[in-house]
Amino acid sequence: MSIGGIESVSGFVPLAAPAVTRPPTAAAPAAGGDFGSMVLNGIERLENVQDTADTLAVRAASGTLPNIHDYTLAATEADVATKLTVAVRNKAIEAFSEIMRMQVG
User: Where are the domains of the chain?
Assistant: First the structure.
């Protein structure tokens, strides 16, 4: 028995993998953009994933969604993406707090 990849599920669009970049050197700026734009891009992607899950939930509740597993996958993806976003936010707040506690000498 062979099990196909998740790409075979209709309507599933996986998140794009992050680009692997080398650490920037003094002569070359980072190719991926600044941190602020990366955060905004991540939040926009999270919003899109949640909107997709919400749309599929409405379709499932109204009976117009032919495959209920599409909603289940979208809801799980939205849950995982939300948990990841919260974890990153918590680490950023922790890092900021640690920087604020540093003594300037």
Answer: 34-105
**pTM, entire model:** 0.62
Tens-place pLDDT, residues 10-29: 555 555 544 544 444 444 44
Contacts of 43 (CB under 8 A, 6+ apart): 85
Please state, in angstroms and as integers, the Cα–Cα distance from residue 71 to each residue in 4, 12, 79, following that order.
19, 10, 12
User: Which residues are CB-contacts of 56 (< 8 A; sequence separation ≥ 6)?
Assistant: 11, 65, 70, 71, 74, 75
pLDDT tens digits for range 30-48? 556 788 898 899 999 999 9
